[in-house]
Specification:
This protein has helices at about 1-10, 20-30, 70-75, 90-100, 125-130, 200-215, 250-275, 310-315, 340-350, 355-360, 465-480, 495-505, and strands spanning about 40-50, 80-85, 135-140, 160-165, 185-190, 190, 220-225, 280-285, 315, 320, 330-340, 390-395, 395-400, 400-405, 445-450. By secondary structure, the chain is of the alpha/beta class. Strands 1, 2, 3, 4, 5, 6, 7, 8, 9, 10 and 11 form an 11-stranded mixed beta sheet that branches. A 4-stranded antiparallel beta sheet has the order 12-13-14-15, covered by helices on one side. The two termini are about 40 Å apart.
């Protein structure tokens, strides 16, 4: 059904998807019948920016000494071994909030506040859906889902409260953004957050998250979306988190940033417990993409990193915790695959809404893609439905244990290819010389069985030529239905960045008022 659906999009011949949606929704009702909660849980979703998979202490015990974080994951939580994101920032956030694969919402990073991009204004986001179920919704941290108009602001896209920055990156100490011509990028609901910049971002957003929880009425379900700016560059830390035994400065700073986020995470859990909310909370925590191994991050032993469709770029560190995790699953690992879009749909259904209410069918934009995987949080050995492909991008997708990658990725920082392998201690110097170089992909692409070869050392394209061609053809059908947010309808009364920053006391702001 999924394959036929995307062919229909590509050819623009099928306009009525009622049967497809009805079939999928019926399956979702059956799959989730046993996991609907009478009282909707509090939902906390945390992204750590550019975090490498091997930069977390449950995979690398030398990574951080923050008290409690390992127990939170390995004793109270569920590790998600195959949680997939996009290969870089904005599309991951766009995918989660919209419930669509990035190929159906956004595969680009909007630079600054003036670019038409992010999440199409016609799409209904998760906080909007949760508000229909009685949730209070709050966002603290990095937006990066489009900010050209005030209509794009989080406060106008379903969040009751928002504190954070709008673009893709900024100085951790001053909140001045290199994407907004060095103006301050810090926003509070409908206007600039005057007087609040100048605090290290990990502290700034961690403390606000705690304050948001402490001010919340526990009798009402809360959705808190907490996308940290750490550990994204520029690489800036606080000395108290540094490990003096680490002998390479860049690795020491990155590790200190991870430790700060780990502490902030523990502070959030303490606040939830102090408010009596923890037993009714599901907290999901992950990176937004693989770490940039060409800078300070490490995705060992996986291949590649940020910017690539290999496992190191898209299969990230992730876990769930909280009282809503089934007791028999605490301390276990989910081996089955899950995508950001599936997380969107699963959380929406946990609110008690029906599959039809969690769908988003609007003329002119693709519908939601996520499937119901609530059983991952309640049932041992839950599996992904057969045939539920994961479209990573227009360059790669996964069908069960099989993965197709059309081509590798190169950049100025890894001109010979970014799909290389690192070592368990990485980086060790400024050269970033790969432990094993990127071998590239043949002209027809790479084929991997990630069930038996999760580190993608063995390209099987020559051994399974028919499977290769079938997957290549299927990806072409998916790519033909690509949708990139670029809709500019309703963007009026626009000014230049310099004009709006001058009018807002040196703070970056949306360029358009409508």
């Amino acid at each position: 059904l999924q394959f036929l659906y995307f062919i229909g999009i590509a050819k623009k011949e099928l306009r009525d998807y009622t049967m497809f949606r009805a079939c999928r929704n019926a399956m979702m009702l059956l799959a989730g019948a046993a996991v609907v909660s009478a009282n909707p849980p509090h939902l906390v979703v945390t992204f750590v920016d550019d975090l490498g998979r091997y930069n977390v202490p449950w995979y690398n015990p030398n990574q951080t000494k923050t008290a409690g974080i390992v127990d939170l994951v390995q004793t109270e939580g569920i590790i998600f071994d195959r949680f997939y994101t996009f290969k870089f920032c904005s599309p991951t956030r766009s995918s989660f909030l919209s419930g669509r694969f990035p190929i159906h919402v956004n595969q680009q990073n909007p630079k600054g506040v003036g670019v038409v991009g992010g999440i199409d204004l016609r799409m209904k986001l998760l906080p909007e859906k949760l508000k229909n179920a009685g949730y209070e919704t709050a966002m603290v941290g990095k937006w990066h889902c489009g900010a050209r108009s005030v209509a794009n602001l989080p406060i106008n896209r379903g969040f009751d409260y928002h504190f954070g920055f709008l673009s893709g990156g900024e100085d951790h100490n001053t909140q001045r953004s290199y994407e907004t011509e060095n103006y301050v990028d810090l926003w509070n609901n409908n206007g600039p957050a005057y007087g609040r910049n100048g605090t290290y971002s990990c502290f700034l957003y961690g403390r606000q998250a705690v304050e948001t929880i402490m001010n919340h009425d526990p009798s009402k379900p809360l959705f808190l979306y907490l996308p940290f700016h750490d550990v994204h560059g520029p690489f800036e830390d606080r000395p108290q988190y540094e490990d003096p035994s680490v002998d390479y400065e860049a690795r020491k700073v990155l590790q200190a940033m991870v430790s700060c986020v780990a502490e902030a995470t523990m502070n959030v859990t303490k606040a939830l417990k102090a408010k009596g909310m923890w037993n009714e909370t599901l907290m999901f925590w992950s990176s937004d993409n693989g770490g940039p191994q060409y800078e300070s991050s490490n995705n060992y032993p996986f291949r590649g990193g940020k910017g690539t469709d290999f496992e190191g770029g898209t299969r990230v560190a992730a876990f769930a915790t909280g009282g809503m995790v089934a007791p028999e699953l605490r301390g276990t690992t989910v081996k089955a695959a899950m995508h950001l879009a599936d997380l969107h749909t699963s959380l929406c259904l946990m609110s008690g809404q029906s599959p039809a209410q969690c769908d988003d069918i609007v003329e002119g934009v693709p519908p939601t893609d996520g499937i119901d995987l609530r059983t991952y949080f309640t049932t041992p050995n839950a599996t992904r439905p057969v045939g539920a492909d994961i479209i990573l991008s227009n360059n790669s997708y996964i069908d069960g244990d099989w993965k197709y990658v059309a081509k590798t990725t190169a950049s100025k920082k890894c001109p010979q290819g970014c799909g290389y392998w690192t070592g368990s201690v990485w980086p060790i110097n400024n050269n970033h010389t790969p432990v094993t170089p990127d071998p590239g992909c043949p002209a027809d692409g790479c084929l991997f069985n990630i069930g038996t070869d999760p580190y993608e050392h063995h390209d099987l394209s020559s051994q399974y030529p028919q499977r290769l061609q079938a997957m290549k053809s299927k990806l072409a059908s998916y790519a033909a239905g690509q949708f990139q947010t670029s809709w500019s309808g309703g963007y009026d009364n626009c000014k230049t960045l310099n004009e709006v920053a001058s009018a807002n006391g040196g703070f970056a702001a949306p360029l358009c008022t409508k």
